[in-house]
Amino acid sequence: MPATLRIAVLASGRGSNFAALLTAHERKGLPVDFVLVASDKAEAPVLQLAQSAGIPTMVLDPREYAERRAYDFALFDRIGASKPDLLVLAGFMRIIDGEALKPWAGRMINIHPSLLPKYRGLHTHRRALKAGDVEHGASVHYVTAELDGGPVIAQATLSIEAGDDETTLAARLLPLEHQLLPAVVALIAAGRLTLGAQGVMLDDEPLRKPLRWRDGELVR
Ligand code: GRF
What we know:
This protein is of the alpha/beta class and about 220 residues long. The chain has helices spanning about 15-30, 45-50, 70-80, 100, 125-130, 165-190; strands at about 5-10, 30-40, 55-60, 85-90, 110, 135-140, 150-160, 195, 200, 205, 210-215, 215-220. The longest helix has 24 residues, at about 165-190.
């Protein structure tokens, strides 16, 4: 692993998780180089955030492609041209073709707003509330062909309170996401976290269950 991890970020929207990575880099010395911020949406606010920080951006519009697979190969080809060590999906709202993902095995992570394996896909806050769950959270996982189904690296948890609705729950979870994602990227940048044949490895030992974000640090 190089001293400074080259990361690319792929996002469709506002980019608060990207902003959290940027802040961790600028204020806390997260040892990464942002080589690219890419999006499927030209109007995504994440692009302005990146441009203001002097980070190269790239947009590829899916409407220019007849098929998802062709789009995904083109997208990842272009991202690959920036030679990232790690690709972070931070609010990328498209399902990705499994073949296009293959070359990225172990080099792509995603942040998802649920305690995976619960609530893959959309509307996670709503579904947690509807199920009457007492806790909710966010997960960072390696990306595989299975949607939100790759090996989970770390999770942050919060209690669901009486009176919570989708908006309050999302608002309380987001600051936790902003801590969880940079913490995981820091482990990868330090060369401590990898994906091997036996699953997620931390410090050369298999991770039997996801790391937990507790009192400001990741714990086993
Ligand atoms: C976050 O809730 C993230 O977990 C999910 O999409 C949302 C993106 O938010 N994957 P932002 O664009 O990073 O603000």
